[in-house]
Structures are given as C-alpha cells and as structure tokens.
Design a protein that fits this description.
Shape: elongated
Distance between the termini: 46 Å
Number of domains: 3
Strand content: 15-25%
Structural class: alpha/beta
Helix content: 25-40%
Number of strands: 11
Strand order of the largest sheet: 4-3-2-1-5-6
Radius of gyration: 24 Å
Number of helices: 14
C-alpha cells in the first residue's frame, strides 16, 4: 500500500444531487496539464481535502489566519478525490462556504475521480474534473462512482479489514494526481488527523519517502473533532456534517451513528433509496450480506420506524431493469480447521433481462421446468434453489434469483474445475428463457 492509500482511508462509496456532472472524455494522458509548466516551481504543500470536518477546519484556519501556516498560498494545492456518492449537504456547504474563499485567495483546487473501475499508477482510467484557482462548481457526482463499482460487483462495502472502497475511490486517484502535480519534488502532505487520532498519524508517517512528508496540523494545534466543528461554525455559521458516502458502513458502527445515519436518510430519501437498492442487489446474490455489520439496512430502518423508505424502494424497483441471475458459490474450509471457512468463490451469470414483472415470470417458468419451488427467503427475495449449501465444509450453493440488472457476469478462471471436483453430479442445464 502506498502513502495516499494508507492516509486517505480517513477521509470523509446519479442520485439526482443537482451537482454538475463532469464530462469524461477519453485521452491518452488524462492527467496532462497537472504538471508544472516549464520554469514553474511545483507546489510544496498538498492538502488532501475530503470535504469533511477535519480538513475543512484546517483549510479555513489557513485562509482566515495567515499566521497559522508557514507557507505562502501560492505554494499550496488542495486536492479532492470524488467518490460520486457524497451527501448532498456536504456539496452544498462546500460550494457556498469553501469555494468562494478559494477564489478570493486564488488557491489552486484540483478535483479528480475514476473514470472506470481499474486505474493505473500512471493515471490511466482517471479524469480531472476541474483544476482551477477560481472554482465555482463542486463536481460531487464524480465520474465512475463507488456505487457503480458496488453494483457491478453485486456487493457492499465492508466494515471489517482494510477499507478497500476508500483505497479504490480515493487513494488510487490521489496518488497519481499528487505525483503529477509535485513532479517528483519534495512536498508536505497535509492530512486531517485530529488530536485523538495520533495512532493513525503515526501509521501514516511510515509511508513517508524522500519526497513525501506527512504533516498533521490538527495534532500540532491539539484540536479534537469538537474544536474543529466549533471553529467551522464560527467562521461559516454552519454545523458541518460528517463527510461520508451515503452508504458508508462505518457510519452505522454505533447506536448514535445509526440514529444520525437514519435521520440523514429521512432527510435525503433519494440517497436512502439508492443505498437500499444497492443492498437489495447484493442480498440477492449473497443472502449473508447486509450493510450494517452483516445485518440488513432495510430491516434496521423498519425497526427504527422508517418503513416508508422501504415502500419508496419498492416503487423504485418497479421501474428498474431486472435480470435473472444464475449464482453458484463454493465455500472451502481452512486446512488446519475444516469447521471454519477459509474462502468462498462465486460465479454470477445473467440468463434473462426485462422488467421486474417479466423477470419474476421468467424465474417462475424456470422453476416449473426444473420442478423446483421459487421460495422467498427472510430477505423477501424469491430464489430457485438448485443446490442448497450444506452444514459442513466444503459446501456448494446454486440458485436462480431475480434482482435489479447491473451486476456483471464474473467467475475466476478455475471455477468450473473447482466446481466439478466438489460436485457429486454435474450442474443441471438451465432451461431456456
């Protein structure tokens, strides 16, 4: 993992936001123009701006209190990696209170994003949304959204292990962009770790190099989150919201977090519906998934008295293109403990597309041909189980399910060989649509 991928997991994955989408034009070098012009000195200070409380407090203090920094603003560049799924209010607040200050002081602001799932360290697959010292538009919608990645993979961001979603949508963008801007010259990389995050700053410092030096002004100022919030409110009159993707599982990691998240969903029903639709597709392909530590967001919202959002979800699903997916899964045990799961491999294949009603009818027809029931699970999703996973490992699972279209057909090269090795009989040939 490189420095930005390590650092930017702390930064704050078209929902009709109203923010101007950026046109993405293919180019041989999508980062062309970011490098210093001939004879121009590269910026010495790079602020990773995640739009949230901590980095906003740093930026505001630097602009309002020149003595709080030891560099000229001409030496500063502010950089944001747009995930495409940020809360609308965050974008509104930045456009109303931060962009005017950047224009007034002539601070360079670079907004970038992925244009596709996979990018390279040289910047292929990225797009620069804006590079300006007078920014007027926050390109909050990005280009290739984190939610696009989740839908194509038919999965959800995970709250355990490395924050892969942040690495993909932020670190993989920021590293090539910062490298091009600084042109191999030494720079100070400013990260918004507040006073209670010394451990994260210590970890980030391990990624310093001969050119990159991580710096953490909030630690130097001994500012915690409450002090950052108070400073922002004092300068803008706004209670700055926590920056996060509208489906970030970490936001629901505590009782208070879930309460705040659910309130945001009530206030932003379109983003709630899009998150629920993402969870619905992921559940269809893996009933064990759920946005809240493996538990279903839909169930939690109903329990919290927000069942009207589920009604809105069903209306949305009625308008979406649907698919019937064939799902197969192989679950292998650990070598040293056959009772524990080591890993799982999944094969997904689309066998039909149409309206929601047409997909449901196709699923019933295939079930009838196979002589199998189309049972509805606890998640309310109908599946035709051709092979149900057993209680012991290794285990196989094989079913058909109707769900929103968009998940890509995918399986690893060796899947068929693994399946044949473990299956007692060949997988049945599926009936034609």
């Amino acid at each position: 993992m490189n420095a930005s991928n390590a650092a930017h997991d702390q930064l704050d994955f078209d929902f009709g936001t109203g923010f101007e989408p950026a046109a993405v034009a293919p180019t041989d070098d999508p980062l062309a123009g970011l490098e210093p012009a001939a004879g121009q000195t590269p910026p010495k200070v790079v602020l990773s701006y995640g739009l949230g409380v901590d980095s906003t407090a740093i930026l505001l203090r630097w602009l309002h209190e020149p003595t709080s920094r030891d560099f000229d603003l001409d030496d500063l560049v502010v950089v944001t990696a747009m995930t495409g799924d940020e809360w609308d209010k965050t974008g509104t607040d930045v456009e109303q209170h931060i962009l005017p200050l950047l224009r007034r002081h002539g601070v360079r602001y670079v907004q970038a994003a992925r244009a596709r799932r996979h990018v390279t360290t040289a910047g292929a697959g990225l797009v620069v949304l804006d590079d300006s010292t007078a920014p007027h538009v926050l390109h909050l919608d990005g280009a290739y959204k984190l939610s696009d990645e989740m839908r194509e993979a038919g999965t959800l961001p995970q709250s355990g292990g490395m924050r892969a979603c942040s690495v993909h949508s932020k670190g993989d963008v920021l590293d090539p962009v910062i490298a091009r801007i600084t042109a191999g010259q030494p720079f100070r990389h400013i990260i918004g770790f507040e006073s209670e995050e010394q451990r994260r700053a210590t970890k980030d410092a391990l990624y310093n190099t001969s050119t990159r030096t991580g710096e953490y002004p909030l630690l130097e100022w001994d500012w915690d989150r409450a002090m950052c919030e108070a400073y922002i409110t004092g300068k803008t009159g706004v209670a700055w919201s926590k920056s996060a993707c509208s489906f970030c599982p970490f936001a629901a990691g505590s009782k208070d977090g879930r309460k705040a998240l659910f309130q945001r969903y009530v206030e932003n029903p379109e983003q709630a519906i899009s998150t629920l639709a993402m969870e619905h597709l992921a559940l269809a392909l893996n009933p064990k998934q759920g946005l809240i530590a493996g538990k279903r967001l839909a169930d939690a919202l109903v329990e919290a008295g927000h069942g009207h959002l589920i009604d809105l979800l069903q209306r949305r699903l009625d308008t979406e293109t649907y698919a019937v997916y064939e799902v197969r899964r192989i679950l292998r045990p650990k070598a040293d403990d056959p009772t524990k799961l080591a890993n799982a491999s999944r094969s997904v294949a689309t066998v039909f597309t149409g309206t929601r009603a047409e997909a449901a009818a196709d699923l019933r027809a295939r079930a009838a041909t196979l002589g199998l029931p189309a049972g509805v699970g606890p998640d309310g999703i109908a599946r035709v189980h051709i092979r149900e996973r057993g209680e012991t490992l290794p285990a196989l699972e094989h079913y058909l399910v109707a769900a929103p279209a968009g998940a890509l057909d995918k399986q690893v090269a060796k899947f068929e060989a693994w399946w044949a090795e473990l299956a007692e009989d060949a997988a049945p040939e599926l009936p034609a649509a």
